[in-house]
Design a protein that fits this description.
Radius of gyration: 20 Å
Helix content: 25-40%
Oligomer: single chain
Distance between the termini: 46 Å
CATH class of the largest domain: Alpha Beta
Structural class: alpha/beta
Order of helices and strands: HHHEHEHEHEHEHHHEEEEEHEE
CATH architecture of the largest domain: 3-Layer(aba) Sandwich
CATH topology of the largest domain: Rossmann fold
Number of domains: 2
Shape: globular
Largest sheet: 7 strands, mixed
Strand order of the largest sheet: 3-2-1-4-5-12-11
CATH superfamily of the largest domain: Vaccinia Virus protein VP39
Number of strands: 12
């Protein structure tokens, strides 16, 4: 496949492979990987609520949308900037725009997706504009590299309230969750709001999660995206998924069946036979761990709600500045 990664992105991949034996999850959403992810997201939206986290999230947002929008309106805002981090295909925002179009018909709306993948940015922008006629600025940014206030500052508009989104349980995929939350908080204004979706852990559900929640073929496909773009063949790898109890996270590993050469940033790299390369992580939170992380990151909890089965949580926060 034609290369889709910049030299800087390749250098970042190289560091992770050499120092952590890991391929960062964020790079699997490039090119064909974006389409592979959308297929998984669609399944999570259309399957039963017992398995479809995107459905659980949509139900919670719909139930609490009055509280979410009223929080911004309390500051006198009548127009709304929706700033969507790790935007995916944009569909998690639909309950918000549906409510605003129906209940705030005179409001001016902007949709500003932020993602490292230009493919995801294009898809999310197209979907939201097509469904609701709402547009804004696309912003390519790696959320792992630090404060991004230069982006959020330019998105601030007079008389617009800012609602930041981090939905789809994306928070669980981040390599340094606490620091990433701090980066978010440092990039916000005092009267901004931040809506976060996260998957919760029920010990009794671990077996079900491992057996049913993920379609192994789909996951293997998307986790191979980065390696395929670097010249490796899917047929030369095995895939393994485990639940790491110590870290309370699902981990996916790509395992070569032979020594495989790839090139990154002009350097030849050998992926050794039987080496386990982490290509995916998904943290599951307890309520106490999640709220504790938000507090330690300097985010004040304004609303916290969970799905009826306690598998998903939605948090509305504000920065403590």
């Amino acid at each position: 496949m034609k290369a889709v990664y910049s030299i800087e992105e390749q250098k970042d991949m190289l560091w992770w492979l050499e120092n952590r034996h890991e391929m960062p999850t964020k790079y699997m959403y490039f090119g064909i990987g974006s389409k592979r992810w959308i297929a998984i997201a669609h399944r999570r939206m259309t399957e039963s609520a017992a398995l479809g986290i995107h459905m659980l999230e949509r139900v919670l947002i719909t139930q609490k949308i009055n509280t979410i929008i009223d929080s911004l309106s309390a500051y006198g805002y009548k127009n709304y900037n929706i700033i969507d981090f790790g935007c995916g295909d944009g569909s998690p925002t639909y309950p918000i725009f549906q409510y605003l179009r129906k209940n705030k018909p005179s409001a001016k709306l902007k949709y500003n997706p932020i993602d490292i993948s230009v493919d995801m940015l294009a898809t999310a922008s197209k979907n939201v504009k097509g469904a609701f006629g709402v547009a804004g600025e696309r912003n390519k940014w790696d959320l792992d590299i630090g404060n991004f206030s230069q982006i959020t500052k330019k998105l601030n508009k007079p008389n617009f309230g800012n609602l930041y989104l981090f939905l789809g349980a994306t928070i669980g995929n981040m390599p340094s969750i606490r620091q990433d939350l701090i980066n978010f908080r440092e990039s916000m204004q005092r009267d901004d709001y931040f809506l976060i979706g996260a998957e919760l852990l029920k010990e009794s559900d671990i077996g079900t999660i491992m057996k049913e929640f993920y379609n192994v073929g789909e996951v293997f496909d998307i986790e191979m995206t980065s390696f395929e773009y670097l010249g490796a063949r899917r047929s030369h790898f095995a895939f393994r998924t485990i639940f790491n109890r110590a870290k309370s996270q699902i981990e996916g590993y790509i395992i070569p069946d032979r020594d495989i050469k790839i090139k990154l940033a002009g350097k030849e790299v050998i992926l050794e036979k039987d080496q386990q390369i982490m290509s995916y992580r998904s943290v599951r939170f307890t309520t106490e761990r999640l709220t504790g992380l938000l507090e330690k990151a300097g985010l004040r909890l304004e609303m916290f709600t969970t799905s009826r089965d306690n598998k998903y949580a939605l948090s509305l926060t504000q920065p403590i500045i």
